[in-house]
Amino acid sequence: xxxxxxxxxxxxxxxxxxxxxxxxxxxxxxxxxxxxxxxxxxxxxxxxxxxxxxxxxxxxxxxxxxxxxxxxxxxxxxxxxxxxxxxxxxxxxxxxxxxxxxxxxxxxxxxxxxxxxxxxxxxxxxxxxxxxxxxxxxxxxxxxxxxxxxxxxxxxxxxxxxxxxxxxxxxxxxxxxxxxxxxxxxxxxxxxxxxxxxxxxxxxxxxxxxxxxxxxxxxxxxxxxxxxxxxxxxxxxxxxxxxxxxxxxxxxxxxxxxxxxxxxxxxxxxxxxxxxxxxxxxxxxxxxxxxxxxxx
Length: 296
Ligand SMILES: [Zn+2]
Known about the structure:
- By secondary structure, the protein is an alpha+beta fold.
- The protein is built from 9 helices and 17 strands.
């Protein structure tokens, strides 16, 4: 299955940490009813939904962008050996760095790290445990942290919300700042002529998409603007993990409106492989067409 996509002169590779049934539909979406799932089960299972456990299948992955000789890594998954409250994330040992190396990039060769937002499954490999301390995994990289996101998670509300998962600020963000590798940036920061951040607030206050444009082609890494294909069909469904579900819904609907029926490739963080696809309009609203599906 294709894990690398060409976007003009840019190359984007999926760097997958895991893909498994994670949560029930209602644990993710408070608005999802059993009737909704029953209605969609024929196409949801088994690719996106595990009937036995009643859980949605999510991928956890980062994206390696090769742009003008630079290696830009977007999102660093859950990470290894971290104390986490959710058993499926706690003290894991995945071979994610091997996946990165297989994609053609040693950790020392990463030039820029971007975290679309500061949630547990997007910051983990920022650091790794060395002799009992958390050290930057990518010692030669600048880590771009969105200032607004940093401010939120340092605030009382952010500190409260972090208790849901385990204190990843302590083991995955602060060690980077202390090592002097963090650059605090605006939500519309431009990384290079082809790669820039775009604001996508709601899921978290400072969440960003990463916009890639080269030689007339465009792709967008969407962070957690969409968690599953269901949210393309039901754009009103925000998740229980959205800091501002109303703004999250607004941002998602505006995004779908803007990119429907265009040839802009979408790269959502949690869609199972091949992950990449396009937004299409249909008689009910929107649908997602993976790159390996025919146009309808
Ligand atoms: Zn996520």
